[in-house]
Design goal:
It is a single chain. This protein folds into 4 domains: 55 residues, Phosphorylase Kinase, domain 1 (2-Layer Sandwich), CATH 3.30.200.210; 216 residues, 3-Layer(aba) Sandwich (Rossmann fold); 191 residues, Dimethylsulfoxide Reductase, domain 2 (3-Layer(aba) Sandwich); 118 residues, Barwin-like endoglucanases (Beta Barrel). Helices cover 32% and strands 18% of the residues. The chain has a 7-stranded mixed β-sheet, with helices on both faces. Strand 2 and strand 3 form a beta hairpin. The radius of gyration is 24 Å and the shape is globular. The model has no long low-confidence stretch (mean pLDDT 96). The protein binds iron/sulfur cluster. The site of iron/sulfur cluster has 14 residues, from helix 1 and helix 7.
Length: 700
């Protein structure tokens, strides 16, 4: 018998599906899709529909603070007072001795906006360092730079409503059929009703998304920019560009035109491994469509040339004038549920809240004034991978890790282990003992999870939703905002005396007034009574903004969108050689989420892809004398992985694929894909190059 039902939002991916939660008389929860929700209309994917198992099973939860006084002693249970007093005393003493840049916070795209905001205020405003970064660095930072360079701000112009208005989709470096399933279901339904709708997928793997497409361009990894430029060249030659849009609303076209004409379609075809006719076909599908949407995710972002890949793709929307009108636009698919909310509050080492710029003195002064502090440091903080480099070198002494598991998710994980061992003080604030990172903590703080705390999140289409607290957290676990505020007060900082998440949200909302992401008229009451809203919501009774740039005024100084010319059309990753002849690309599987601390608890989610396997092309398998099912040893300059082989032409020749979810806790050290991955990052976005590591593969 269900006592009560409430509406909330799924805590997994950036699609942001609405969920109805029901509780029984024993306070066990059940979930179902919210039929009235504008995103999912009642549908849920396998991860979302099994969320209640994750909540009801508390066997892995961290129940009380644990601390150790030295590395030679085990951690012991302590009170919250002892835990946070120790944290404050260690942070004070390290900062006094080594300066504010000797400490750092590493947070998460799964944190709620209020948590993100308060951690950012604490670090940048009061600790006096910009050393706060987030696992969104591994996910979205190349897209952020791409949008900023093209439109002037990190602004996703599109809405899910545009899906049903478009007649051509270019899905590239993404497998939404598995990783954004409900969004992909909407595309499938749209195509089922409108068979003329065209879907192009660009991916080195034949994924479920590619299988549904009208055209799959199975490119050689790392050749994306050349392929997008070749498509642009065909569009130009066929007269399928929007000259009026280019002339009146953009800048930089001539330099771009020069670059796209520097490589012939024939040469591009050879470099990319894609038939010339398919490149021309893709250009026709795009150029002849009335509404063209591009969608992308990690295949573009996680690259040593991630920023250039993003701008090269965005150029296809500009050259066709497909921005700011119904059924069109470039749509980056956010991996995590609140990656966008984190960007709004400036939750990265090079950003300030409300899309202000850390490099802009006036912006720093405005933010400092708002928080009542003397100044914000002009020095960019350490990004995710830089933090662990600095721990390893000893420049960074203490790190506070909240809601993320870098021991599985960061590249070259053996190096992350040695960095953590070298840290003087490690705080891990999390919900689960199954996080590999907990093993390295001097202080473990139990955090409340989904349904155990309230706050807001923003999905991929700028849609803000309110998530209510419905159940009590187990043991002594507390909401992250309470933990951060309590610590800040013990550090002696004013400005953290909040009584609720709502008060924090209100402070943040007032900060947005007059900005491009203004939500100063969107309070908790409206979110609770009227549902979700897409930012900006700049006026009283404003219904939210479905689509940006309808007036063709972009956020650049000239108000024009900018064609960016790729600094390098070549991939700058370390190329395969005699010792490491293959390219490893990593990614996700349908029923697992990140490092499996949540989805790994649900038996029915393990049946689809129970253990990690290496996907290898039949030609590469033959050359390496590997048969389907053999145990293989994959080696790179950084480490080793041993898993069974799956011989399949789903993966292009010369490339192998491993899923990224498995860590030591769940299987063994030898299943962890990031043992292998290289440490290159994009020079601007600082996003790691997960999709291109040279490796060797042999039968074990
Ligand atoms: Fe949750 Fe994403 Fe699945 Fe929707 S598509 S139910 S948001 S995991």
């Amino acid at each position: 018998m269900h006592k009560k039902e409430v509406k909330t939002t799924c805590s997994y991916c950036g699609v942001g599906c609405g969920i109805i939660v029901k509780k029984d008389n024993n306070d066990k929860v059940f979930v179902e899709g919210d039929k009235d929700h504008p995103v999912n209309r009642g549908m849920l994917c396998s991860k979302g529909m099994n969320l209640h198992y994750v909540v009801n099973d508390t066997s892995d939860r961290i129940l009380y603070p644990e601390m150790r006084w030295s590395r030679s002693h085990p951690r012991e249970r302590v009170s919250w007072d002892d835990a946070l007093d120790r944290a404050a005393s260690v942070f004070k003493s390290i900062i006094k001795k080594h300066g504010p840049d000797s400490v750092a916070f590493y947070v998460s795209g799964q944190s709620l906006t209020e948590e993100y905001y308060i951690a950012n205020k604490l670090t940048k405003g009061f600790l006096g360092t910009n050393n706060i970064d987030t696992n969104s660095r591994l996910c979205m930072s190349s897209a952020v730079v791409g949008y900023k360079k093209t439109f002037g701000e990190d602004s996703v112009p599109v809405s899910y409503e545009d899906i049903e208005l478009a007649d051509c989709f270019l899905i590239t470096g993404a497998n939404p059929a598995w990783c954004h399933p409900i969004l992909f279901r909407r595309i499938e339904q749209h195509k089922e009703k409108n068979p003329h709708v065209k879907i192009i997928v660009i991916d080195p793997r034949k994924t479920d998304s590619a299988n549904f497409a009208d055209l799959h361009l199975q490119l050689i990894p790392g050749t994306d920019i050349i392929l997008y430029n070749a498509i642009a060249r065909c569009l130009y030659k066929r007269g399928l560009i929007d000259e009026d849009f280019i002339k009146n609303y953009t800048e930089g076209f001539s330099a771009y035109k020069e670059q796209i004409f520097a490589t012939s379609v024939k040469d591009a075809s050879k470099i990319c491994g894609v038939p010339e006719s398919d490149i021309r076909k893709a250009a026709d599908m795009i150029g002849l469509s009335k509404g063209f949407i591009s969608m992308w995710a990690m295949g573009l972002n996680q690259s040593a040339v991630g920023t250039d890949k993003n701008t090269a793709l965005l150029n296809l929307s500009l050259i066709t004038g497909q921005v700011g009108k119904p059924g069109s636009g470039p749509f980056s698919l956010t991996g995590q549920p609140n990656a966008m909310g984190g960007r709004e509050v400036g939750g990265m080492a090079n950003l300030l809240a409300v899309h202000k710029d850390l490099q802009n003195e006036e912006h720093r002064r405005e933010v400092a004034q708002f928080w009542g502090v003397d100044q914000i440091s002009p020095k960019p903080g350490l990004t995710a991978t830089e933090m662990f480099d600095a721990l390893e070198s000893g420049k960074l002494k203490a790190i506070w890790i909240a809601c993320t598991n870098p021991l599985v998710s960061l590249p070259n994980t053996h190096r992350i282990e040695s960095a953590m061992k070298n840290a003087k003080f490690v705080v891990v604030q999390d919900i689960s003992h199954k996080s590999d990172t907990v093993a390295f903590a001097d202080l473990v703080l139990p955090a409340a999870g989904w349904l155990e705390k309230e706050g807001t999140m923003t999905n991929s289409e700028r849609r803000i939703s309110y998530l209510p607290k419905e159940i009590n957290a187990p043991g002594e676990a507390r909401p992250d905002v309470e933990i951060f505020c309590d610590f800040a007060q013990r550090m002696g900082f004013r400005g953290f005396n909040f009584n609720s998440a709502e008060e924090i949200y209100e402070e943040y909302c007032s900060m947005t007034k007059g900005t491009k992401i203004d939500i100063s008229f969107l309070n908790y009451d409206r979110l609770k009574s009227e549902g979700t809203f897409q930012w900006p919501v700049p006026e009283h009774r404003h219904a939210g903004t479905q689509r940006l740039f309808q007036d063709k005024k972009f956020y650049t100084p000239s108000q024009k969108a900018i064609f960016n010319v790729a600094t390098s059309i070549e991939n700058t990753s370390m190329q395969p050689n005699g010792m490491y002849p293959l390219v490893l690309t990593t990614g996700r599987v349908r029923d697992q989420w990140h490092t499996m601390t949540k989805t790994g608890k649900v038996s029915r989610l393990k049946t689809h892809y129970p253990t990690p396997v290496l996907e290898i092309n039949p030609v590469d398998a033959y050359l390496s004398k590997i048969k389907d099912g053999d145990i293989t040893e994959i080696k790179s300059e950084n480490g080793v992985v041993r898993v069974r082989a799956k011989v399949t032409d789903n993966i292009v020749k010369g490339c192998v694929f491993l899923p990224m979810h498995w860590g030591k806790q769940l299987q063994s050290d030898l299943n962890r894909a990031n043992n292998l991955t290289n440490t290159l990052v994009d020079p601007i976005s600082k996003e790691p190059d997960f999709k291109f590591t040279r490796v060797s593969v042999s039968k074990y």
